Task: structure prediction
Amino acid sequence: MSEYLDDVKRYAAKADENAVAGIVKHLGIALKSKDSSLVSCSSKDEFGARAG
Result:
């Protein structure tokens, strides 16, 4: 978990450790796979799929 906290603190120095832990717990599966951790916004079909 500390590697995620360290990464978050690069952008938000006062990040709450419990909040980061909660996010990691909720999204842990997506964070473990490099492919699923990437978000595509280059394709209108992919970008608008959830917004539709």
In short: The first helix runs from residue 2 to 11.
